[in-house]
Write a structure and sequence with these properties.
Length: 338
């Protein structure tokens, strides 16, 4: 029951809501969207998605604004990324309008679970698809099952917006240059889990993943993109194995609106020490400013200071202002759900 939730102390955890939405492609056509309160999937033991990792997911958020309205952020962009994930996994892509309709209906069904404005929390929407044909061979999977569920969430990193400690560890590569790093395949998270756990055990918040070919370039900061600020410029890495983050795209636009230069290009490990500010960005992470980066192999330590940098803070506020309806939505990013 939504009434029992302690909105001000939410973490990034699953909380049961009223309903989730199911949809299925049977090899020929999409089913209608079906609303259910069943939290479980009854799955055949030979379901292809389970064996061969033919699955991908998305993450987006809905916010209760200062005006009481509920806004869903950039759903069509997540729909397009869901389609590119489907394409790379040889699954049928869900049309944008159906994806957006499913997200809007999901938020409406769970409107009591959209946290109050004052809490600074949000409703996380998790679309999930998997190849659902029953087979043992490895081949294209013509049947797809899609689930949209939601959970009210607070900050991704424990303790809210604070400077995070990042470690560069070359023990695991997140994704190969021609692999699946640019889509939201579950396997990317599985393949980088061990180094993430090691980092947590060592007291770090996140691992900085480097490019798998040379281990010279910055790829991602855990489950978030990386950005650095220097000389009035917003710099973020470009690479074929980085997930194109919707948040990063928004920040590049907002940075440009603020009069900053924007550069998306390869960023070397050596360049890290030249940034005045650094951060991780993503739907879950929002902007998580980076306080320090330690390189396990070279033992180099970069300290970005004890305070959140002014540009990171201005970008954070500009993004939050649009999401919470405090500023004009100049780029038409939000859908007003209710
Ligand atoms: N990179 C990875 C690996 C992620 O899992 C995420 C989270 O979605 C992001 C970046 C940030 O992407 P977005 O801003 O679209 O949530
Ligand atoms: C997101 O930011 O939406 C993510 O998917 C990150 C993570 C929880 C995997």
């Amino acid at each position: 029951m939504a009434a029992k939730i302690d909105w001000n102390n939410l973490g990034f955890d699953y909380i049961k809501t009223n309903a989730n939405i199911r949809c299925r492609f049977d090899g020929k056509k999409w089913s209608q969207l079906a609303i259910t309160d069943d939290e479980y999937i009854h799955m055949h033991i030979a379901t292809m998605g389970l064996h061969y990792g033919i699955m991908a997911f998305e993450g987006l958020k809905a916010f209760r604004g200062v005006d009481g309205k509920v806004r869903l952020f950039r759903a069509a962009d997540n729909a397009r990324r869901f389609q590119s994930s489907a394409y790379k996994l040889c699954l049928e892509p869900m049309p944008t309008d159906v994806f957006v309709e499913a997200c809007v209906r999901l938020v409406k069904e769970n409107i009591d679970f959209v946290p109050p404005y004052e809490s600074g929390a949000s409703l996380y929407v998790r679309p999930l698809m998997y190849g659902s044909q029953i087979a043992i061979g490895v081949h294209r999977c013509p049947e797809v099952d899609i689930i949209f569920f939601a959970s009210p969430v607070g900050p991704y990193f424990k303790g809210g917006m604070h400077l995070i400690k990042v470690v560069i560890d070359r023990m695991q590569d997140r994704a190969a240059p021609r692999g699946t790093g640019d889509i939201k395949a579950g396997g990317n998270y599985a393949s980088s889990l061990l180094s993430g756990e090691k980092a947590h055990e060592m007291g770090y918040d996140n691992v900085m993943y480097l490019d798998a070919a040379q281990h010279r370039f910055i790829e991602e900061c855990g489950a978030a993109n990386f950005f650095g600020i220097k000389n009035g410029t917003y710099v973020t890495p470009a690479s074929p194995s980085i997930l194109p983050s919707v948040t990063n795209d928004s920040l590049r636009t907002l940075a440009h609106d603020m009069g900053l230069n924007v550069e998306q290009r390869p960023v070397t490990v050596e360049e890290l020490k030249t940034f005045e500010e650094a951060g991780a960005c993503g739907t879950a992470a929002v902007i998580s400013p980076i306080g320090s980066i330690y390189d396990i192999d070279t033992q180099e330590y970069i300290d970005y200071g004890k305070k959140i940098g002014p540009v990171s803070l201005a970008l954070y506020n500009a993004l939050r202002d649009i999401q919470y309806g405090r500023a004009e939505d100049k780029h038409n990013w939000c859908i007003i759900v209710e």
